[in-house]
Amino acid sequence: MAKLYFNYSTMNAGKSTLLLQASHNYRERGMRTLLLTARLDQRAGEGRIGSRIGIGSEAETYVPGDDLFARIRDRLADGPLACVLVDEAQFLEPIQVRQLAWAADDLGVPVMAYGLRVDFRGELFPGSAALLALADSLREVRTICHCGRKATMVARVGPDGKAVTEGAQVEIGGNDRYLSLCRRHWREAVGEGPEG
């Protein structure tokens, strides 16, 4: 039985590296995969998934409103798919998460989604919330805070290097804009607490 998997973490945990490795493993055995990534994140180039360690692969892009179930169904007309791998899954719309679940349930294709759990304000992304609700399997990809504890939060920093607490939920950036922190250091950075 095919399943919907959600691999989540903060920034810089190696989610894209794991996705690319999984795809490589399938392809090395002669199996086809479908790689999808959000069109709005073009840090590695349009239609490309890239890892900070220097590996990458071409991918199809998705935008709000795309019917991912139909896309997967149409790709199956060209032959079997061993797996669908989705990068930047936090940018999925809740209906698109349902479409991925339908693909696993009705088309028998495993779907592995990789993305952030929370935004810089400590709030769930809509796509991540839907994945947490619907995924058959949840896996936390761990990374560490500067203090050595597990990082579970993401802080967005401004040009002055200080954490910002307001703004649009989505702002594409890398190490220049985001820090992965443990909750204690995130709270300290954003000034949250009983006296903050």
UniProtKB/TrEMBL annotation:
Pfam families: TK (PF00265). Its EC number is 2.7.1.21. HAMAP family: Thymidine_kinase (MF_00124). PANTHER family: THYMIDINE KINASE, THYMIDINE KINASE, CYTOSOLIC. ATP binds at residues 9-16, 87-90. The keyword rRNA processing does not apply. PROSITE patterns: TK_CELLULAR_TYPE. It comes from Albimonas pacifica. This is Thymidine kinase. Gene3D superfamilies: 3.30.60.20, P-loop containing nucleotide triphosphate hydrolases. GO terms for biological process: DNA biosynthetic process; thymidine metabolic process. Zn(2+) binds at residues 145, 147, 182, 185. Homotetramer. It catalyses: thymidine + ATP = dTMP + ADP + H(+). The active site is at residue 88. InterPro entries: P-loop_NTPase (IPR027417), Thymidine_kinase (IPR001267), Thymidine_kinase_CS (IPR020633). Belongs to the thymidine kinase family. It is an enzyme of class 2 (transferase). Its main location: cytoplasm. Keywords: ATP-binding, Cytoplasm, DNA synthesis, Kinase, Metal-binding, Nucleotide-binding, Transferase, Zinc. It is found in: Cytoplasm.
